[in-house]
Specification:
Blueprint: H1 2-8, H2 34-43, H3 47-51, H4 57-90, H5 104-107, H6 111-149, E1 158-167, E2 177-186
Antiparallel strand pairs: 1-2
Helix pairs in contact: 2-6, 4-6
């Protein structure tokens, strides 16, 4: 019964944390979260860019994914054709009847040529999957970096100046040279 009174009828002196009353002068600063932007982009590519209000990046991201999907589709189809023709050639025409529709059987004379084509398109499929994964990761990294730099303050004390430059000579041939001078100032 004593335990019941201690745990189920708590008074203010039993609480481990005291509740702080909010006053009217407390201002809530809504900070842009890089973690939230990364999480959004991981769940749905482009959503982190929308969270960062960089809407122009969303079509770029999806155009990249569409390109990679197209390349995966084309390379997979070619790989299957070469593999089917290769298996047909290696088995000395004992494979199923539907393989006869494959034009690569008659186009390439040796099994070695078909094997090289099969290996080439398999490599392309695998590389395209890897590049697609890198594109997905870059989407997440872009959202995180953009969210970090959203509150970055650039003021008049930071400047970059590019001017034409002229040098009297260098160490090798002592001839005058023209070029560009880049100056970065932190006042």
């Amino acid at each position: 019964m004593l335990l019941f009174l201690i745990f189920f009828l708590p008074g203010e002196h039993i609480l481990a944390q005291q509740k702080i009353k909010k006053t009217e002068d407390t201002a809530w600063i809504n900070k842009h979260s890089p973690h939230k932007a990364s999480l959004y982009s991981a769940v749905l590519p482009g959503l982190g860019q929308a969270y960062n209000k960089k809407y122009w990046k969303i079509p770029v991201i999806y155009a990249g994914f569409a390109t990679f999907a197209y390349l995966i589709s084309i390379n997979t189809r070619e790989y299957k054709k070469y593999k089917e023709a290769y298996v047909w050639k290696v088995n000395y025409d004992i494979s199923p009847i539907d393989s006869i529709d494959n034009e690569y059987i008659y186009k390439y004379g040796t099994a070695n040529q078909l094997k090289r084509g099969k290996d080439y398109y398999l490599r392309n499929v695998e590389l395209t999957w890897i590049v697609t994964g890198v594109w997905y990761i870059l989407n997440i990294v872009d959202a995180a970096v953009d969210a970090h730099l959203l509150d970055y303050n650039i003021n008049e004390y930071l400047s970059l100046k590019i001017e034409p430059g002229f040098s009297n000579g260098n160490m090798i041939n002592n001839q005058p040279m023209a070029g560009l001078t880049v100056r970065l100032k932190f006042r």
